[in-house]
Write a structure and sequence with these properties.
About 85% of the residues lie in helices and about 0% in strands. It is built from five helices and no strands. The chain has helices spanning about 15-45, 55-85, 85-95, 100-130, 130-159. The two termini are about 25 Å apart.
Length: about 160
């Protein structure tokens, strides 16, 4: 199974190696975001005078810990991948396989439809009790649509 954002169109191992190295910078950024999230939640719960529910503190600490764990695992995995030419070749072939890219594309579209429908129902039902929820979710859908149109136009110009 390919990850959400793992399909590439690299033709040789060196080009794919550069893609992996760029991706590793993303994981380093994710690690920094996780550490920052965890530290802020820890400080807010133990030292700062911020009134937050224990559930929210735990959620922020859990998100931070999850980002830390996922980024460390992905950095380790990709580091090992870069050291082994045969694994790198197999990973490149899997990531650039047209069938896998089509599967990823269809899965993303299906997940997007489910997400938009879920946002719609939460907006309708949650908005009855908390109007702010309806406002925020409606704006998130608008943000998605604007981002889609902008991305489509930018990508269409490049191709």
């Amino acid at each position: 199974m390919l990850g959400l954002f793992c399909s590439v169109s690299c033709t040789d191992n060196e080009e794919y190696r550069k893609c992996i190295q760029k991706r590793m910078w993303l994981w380093r950024g994710m690690l920094a975001a996780g550490i920052l999230t965890f530290i802020i939640a820890f400080l807010a719960g133990n030292y700062w005078q911020i009134e937050l529910e224990d559930f929210m503190l735990g959620m922020y600490q859990g998100v931070g810990a999850g980002l830390i764990g996922a980024s460390v695992a992905l950095l380790f995995k990709n580091g090992r991948l870069l050291k082994d030419e045969e694994k790198l070749r197999r990973a490149r072939i899997a990531a650039s396989d047209e069938r896998n890219m089509e599967i990823v594309s269809r899965a993303m579209r299906a997940a997007l439809v489910v997400l938009l429908v879920a946002i719609y129902f939460v907006m309708l039902i949650g908005g009855l009790w908390y109007p702010q929820i309806a406002w925020v979710l409606a704006n998130l859908v608008c943000l998605f649509l604007l981002a889609y149109v902008a991305a489509y136009k930018i990508i269409a110009r490049k191709m």
